[in-house]
Amino acid sequence: MPTKLEKFSQFKKFNNAFTYLYQDYILDTQPFHLFNQWNVHFFHNNHPIILEIGCGRGEYTVGLASKYPHQNFIGIDYKSNRMWMGAKYALENQLKNVAFIRTKVEFLDKVFAPLEISEIWITFPDPQIQKSREKKRLTHPRFLEHYKKFLKKNGIIHLKTDNDIFFNYTLETLKNLNITPLLYTYNLYQEKDNTELNEVKSIQTYYEKLFSEQGHSIKYCKFQLI
Ligand SMILES: C[S@@+](CC[C@H](N)C(=O)[O-])C[C@H]1O[C@@H](n2cnc3c(N)ncnc32)[C@H](O)[C@@H]1O
Question: Does domain 114-226 sit in CATH 2.60.40.770?
Answer without folding.
Answer: no
